Amino acid sequence: MLLTNKEILSEAMAKGYAVGHFNISNLESLLAITEAAVEEKSPVIIAITSSSIKYAGLEYLTAIVKTAEKSTSIPMSLHLDHGPDVETVSKCIDIGFTSVMIDGSHLNFEENISLTKHVVELAQPKGISVEAELGRLAGIEETTVEEKDAILTDPSAAKEFVERTGVDILAVAIGTSHGAYKFKAKPRLDFERLKTIRKMVKIPLVLHGASGVPSRLVEKAVKYGAAISEAKGIPDEDIKKAISLGIQKINIDTDLRLAFTSTVREILVTLPKEFDPRKILGPAKEAMKEIVKGKMQLFGSAFKAD
User: Residue 236: which of 206, 257, 265, 215 has the closest Cα?
Assistant: First the structure.
């Protein structure tokens, strides 16, 4: 049985660890994540974006996740990541997702509240948890105090947002950013802001844009032809600190893409006669699995599903 994110994260909140949210777009990524969860005995959040739905099909992706869930007793949820509109959210609710995110972070405060409240009214009566986002993800290493305050999550606004919408889970902006090019210089996250938000908001908190972009993966990809030498991510020590200050859910996508792509590139270059997709994608799946296992250990969720 698939759980909701609220159920999974309430346990994490009570025991002081975080749960990884890992995005999938094909069978290999799902197998990597679920196999890692079983081996690490970790709860896990399987996430799907609207772009992945467009690529692989909502019915196909939902079916393979439900098949994976039936084969294990690991606590698992099926989550819509960055739901762009009510139509997409409604389709995911109807097909069996257990958690949805509505992303109104690009709207003004009142519009974000109105949109989020509407989704809460659609989802919660059906036992589905709702995540929303307040603030914008953007690196802050070169911003002024005024610019930072305009970008990041305001603690008082977060408290009001949660109270007025009834949302279950809140994604906050403290200086992380999506993608592989998060920073031009050393990462600088606003941990004091996170401390204040945690004191004022009593529901689980989420850190988006939290991939580490490991240098070994970047170097491997570059060695075999990728042009991503400037990619930078969030250091492990910052992730640990964020968890200690009250983050319960951490979103990872870029690191999986890097592990997959760098391995595929390596095989195509070093084994030019290989044309069996299984012998190309299989090692790529294993590379993703090792990344997921490492994240579960880092987040403290390993062996929490005993």
Answer: 215
Q: Has residue 85 got a pLDDT over 90?
A: yes
Q: Which of 22-36, 117-131, 175-189 has the lowest mean pLDDT?
A: 175-189
- The residues annotated with a catalytic role in the active site are 81
The Cα–Cα gap between 137 and 98 comes to 25
Helices and strands: H and E segment counts in the chain: 13, 8
Spatial CB neighbours of 152, under 8 Å, sequence gap ≥ 6: 135, 136, 140, 173, 174, 175, 190, 193
Residue given tokens 């008082």 in the structure block: 156
CA distances (Å), origin 173, targets 58, 131, 242, 266: 29, 14, 12, 35
Strands 169-172 and 205-207: parallel
Q: Region of 250 please: left (phi>0), alpha (psi -120 to 50) or beta.
A: beta
Using left for φ > 0, alpha for ψ between -120 and 50, and beta otherwise, residue 300 falls in left
- Residue positions counted in the chain: 306
Residue 184: the pLDDT is 57
Record the pTM: 0.93
Give me the domains of the chain, ranges plus CATH numbers. Answer: 5-299 (3.20.20.70)
Strands 247-252, 205-207: pairing is parallel
Predicted pLDDT of residue 147: 52
